[in-house]
Amino acid sequence: MKWKKLRFFIAVAAITAFSSQTYGQGYVDDALRISQPVLRGSTRTQSLGAAFSSLGGDIGVLSSNPAGLGFYRKSDISFTPEYSNSSLQSSYFYNKVNDSKQGWNVGNFGIVFAHSSPEADRGLATDNRLISFAFGAGYSRNSSFNRNTTFSGHNPGRSFNSLLSDQANASGFTGQDYGSTLGGIAFDEYLINPTNKAMTTFAPVQAANLDQNGSMQENGYSDESNFSFGTNFGNVVYVGAGVNFDNLSYQRLTQFNETGIVDPAMKIDGITYSKFTSQYGTGINGKAGIIFNLANALHIGGYVQSPTNYSMYETSDMSLYGLKSNQLIGPSVNNTDNMGKVTAGTYDPTVSATNSYHIRTPYKYTAGASLILGKFMLLTGEADYLDYRQMRFSSDNSSADMNINSQIQTKYKAVINYKAGAELKFGPLVIRGGYVFASSPLSNSVTDADRRILTGGFGIRSGNFYIDFGGVRDFSRSYRNLYTLNDNTGPSLKQYNIRTSGTVTIGTRF
């Protein structure tokens, strides 16, 4: 076959071919990872299960309902470091492997500047006028994507080779120009074979005893810088609004091996595949909220957060090799020169590509209520509504966009998440606890993919100084297909994750 040395075009074509199925599904998963809400804010906020939509007077309102800034009469500043440990159990065809990862980060930082009327400061009647207002700026670590995954198992179904033959059959080869697509690279490495003389259809080399193993190393985070203001009208109505600037950084190294292939020509007995993906994104959203104080005992509040439209930039490096007795088998081709002379040659199947696109998250609607029992007890709860079918992917490839957005519509659904918290005061000592139930966003899941989060902590108040200690225990299950074939089937990796984190907030009023 003719050997083209323009590796740039080979790279772009190969990545594009692979993206049409497997990585298209990857973008669907990326949209969910970016869109799911998490616990964030100060230690007090997290310890109460982040049920803060009807509360105020804490730095955590910068990450929830900005109307809570209206409760401030004094300025405030605080800092919250966080330590987390992620324990992950992966099950692949009933074979379980355990992994873990730990790390420190800045969980939250914020400052609030408050101003109140002289009448309110002296306890005089204010006639339902503007009593106070506050402006706040803060930073929160929204999500940590750090985790290690190791998997291995015996796959009785279709192999990774089946994906390669699907790609070859869908690529529309012309003549002998095989090396310009991923399926063509697979053909040059003896991973797939033609099924007709014209070499227009292909089938995978069969496997008799298919063993698969690999790993995924994920690193990254999403964070948020926010600027908000809140006002207090007559100690009855509190109104606020804010703007959030979001950042995202995510890297994933995937390594996949498959052995047990039976090649009649004895060219190969396995496959090794690796891919490094790096994603960076920025976005902006706004929110507005309101809180009503009823008889100083019952607070009702809520807020709306607009979608975040992330501008994403991605780079990918991918390599695909055949294996023979654990030795790499690179693509082998014939180069025909202008004189008709045929010489053997090889090329490096390590290819790179870049992509720019946008992901839009859904609206978030939150409403809650709090019951304040004197100076001794606080009970709070709220519910979030998100419709994950509103997520949208857009790029310069309109046909790919339609396919990915169709998958989003099919795979996900609207959910309601519930949060609750309680606080007990014993003089300067405060004890807190909370619970979060986050419904599974998967529309057709027959297994439990809900998240359950337990929170707790305690704090000490002494004059204008305060210090809070808290912990979060997050239980979740997830399911990802390692590769997706033309018939929408593929081996599933089941994961059970327990993330434990501890925070300390140190702050002072001034």
Q: Biggest sheet, strands in spatial order? A: 1-2-3-7-8-9-10-16-17-19-20-21-22-23
| Known CATH architecture | Beta Barrel
Distance between the termini: 77 Å
By DSSP (H or I, 4+ residues per run), the number of helices equals: 6
Please state the oligomeric state of the protein chains shown: single chain
| Number of E-type strands | 23
Mean pLDDT: 85
Unreliable runs: 1-23
Instruction: Report the β-strand fraction as a percent range.
Output: over 45%
Biggest sheet features:
14 strands, antiparallel, barrel
Notes on the structure:
The chain has 510 residues and is mainly beta. It is built from 6 helices and 23 strands. Helix 1 (7-35) runs parallel beside helix 6 and helix 4 (160-170) packs across helix 5 (182-188). The longest helix is centred in the N-terminal third of the chain and has 29 residues, at 7-35. It starts with 6 loop residues before the first helix and ends with a strand.
